Amino acid sequence: MSNTTPDFQADEFLLDHYVGKTPLVRLQRLASHTQATVLAKLEGNNPAGSVKDRPAYNMIMQAEKRGQIKPGDTLIEATSGNTGIALAMVAAMRGYKMKLIMPASSSQERKDAMRAYGAELIESESMEHARDLALQMEKDGIGLVLNQFGNPDNLEAHYLTTGPEIWEQTGGKITHFVSSMGTTGTIMGISKYLKEQNPNVQIVGLQPSEGSNIPGIRRWPKEYLPTIFDASRVDEIMDIPQIEAEKTARQLARLEGISAGVSSGGAVWASLRIAEQHPDAVIVCIVCDRGDRYLSTGLFSVEDTE
Question: Ranges for the Tryptophan synthase beta chain-like PALP domain (predicted)?
Answer without folding.
Answer: 17-289
